[in-house]
Specification:
Layout (H helix, E strand, L loop, with lengths): L36 E2 L12 H11 L16 H13 L9 E4 L1 H13 L5 E6 L3 H9 L3 E8 L2 E2 L1 H9 L6 E4 L13 H13 L4 E4 L22 E5 L11 E4 L2 H15 L4 H11 L3 H27 L5 E2 L7 E5 L6 H10 L2 E2 L1 E2 L12 E5 L5 H18 L1
Parallel strand pairs: 1-12, 3-4, 3-6, 6-7, 7-8
Antiparallel strand pairs: 2-9, 4-5, 8-9, 10-11, 11-14, 13-14
Helix pairs in contact: 1-8, 3-4, 3-7, 5-6, 9-11
This protein binds 4'-deoxy-4'-aminopyridoxal-5'-phosphate.
4'-deoxy-4'-aminopyridoxal-5'-phosphate (PMP) binds next to helix 3.
Length: 396
Amino acid sequence: MTERQIDWAPLLAPRAAAIHASVYPKFGALPEHPDVINFKGGAPAAECLPIAHLRHSICRAWQVEPGVLYYEESEGFLGLRELIAARMARRGAPVSPGEVLVTNGSQQGLELIAKLLLEPGDRVVVEGPTYFGALQIFDIYQATYDVVPMDQDGIDPVALEAALKREPRPKLIYLIPTFQNPAGVSLSPERRRAVIDLSHRYNVPIVEDDPYGELWFERDLGPLRALDPDVLYLGTFSKTLAPALRMGWLAAPPELMQRFIDAKESVDIQSDRVLQRAVAEAAGGGWLDQHLEQVRPIYRSRRDHLLARLAEEMPPGTRWTLPGGGFFVWVTLPGGMSADALLHRAAAEGVQYYAGSSFYPDTCQRPTFRLGFSTLPEERISEGLARLGRVARDIG
Ligand code: PMP
């Protein structure tokens, strides 16, 4: 065997420089601790993963005829697309199975949208803060950003219009309108209408990323797609069943579907055909609805507990959002305290979270951070907030 001789660095395509991890430590490595209470999670609780039911569904799906083990159906298994279309219709957004493309998680749907629509330098409107996995993709396509602020009712339509007015026009409006990641807030009904009007007026399409919409605590707000058939809609089973399945979907207008199918085929030919049958089997017959009825109270109770502990433990002047569903609360520290600086101190005490700076395309430090409550039982939330409150009061 000869020594390795190739010098790879000069061979990398310029775009390789834009490829980075979804969250990377912008402000250095964190101290270690033997008992970390981790508020970073954005996945279902371990006790909400339907392991036995999935095992059973996967076994049944494996009783396949040999044809299923070939290359076929880049658009996805019809039975699964029918199930997805029926579920979307029930949430007020009727689509046909032909308008649904099964993807390897919604992350792949996002990548296909970027691939089809973005050129280097194109402007993308994002919520401030926004999902770091979306920035990871848009960065690769060398987008530039218009970060539009949000409040408790979601993105600010006045600031959105200002961004849309500027030439050259943005190419996309990327929104997580329901139980937003990371802010936990939802776009109000009035603003939903306003945002759609703006999208039409300026001819800039909306991408609706909706992983948490079905995990509501009080009521289903429905998708934005219910109000506008031009919305490019991304759904997933990652939060309702399990992220490892990598089973999501993109619902898009019919005139774009073949391009999306071809783009998907070029990347991975098709999603796992056996697992698609397993997910259709697992979710069908009303099972997923029953499952959601069981898990919603667990997440709701963790949210309630977290909000109560925040009120007791955090220094005066700390503010936070009140999520009506999903997995996240967004906290703002008082007096311009940096959440990145706090994170270093908190990690030394055994508490971790994602600092607000992870959810913006720039490298500014911010007084905000995300607390994910889905994976933590109440007593861990209490202990974590007690530790965090101590550190925050100490610095403040
Ligand atoms: N979008 C958002 C807003 C998310 O929070 C996530 C998961 N963290 C994804 C997309 C990716 O989900 P999936 O597992 O379906 O690819």
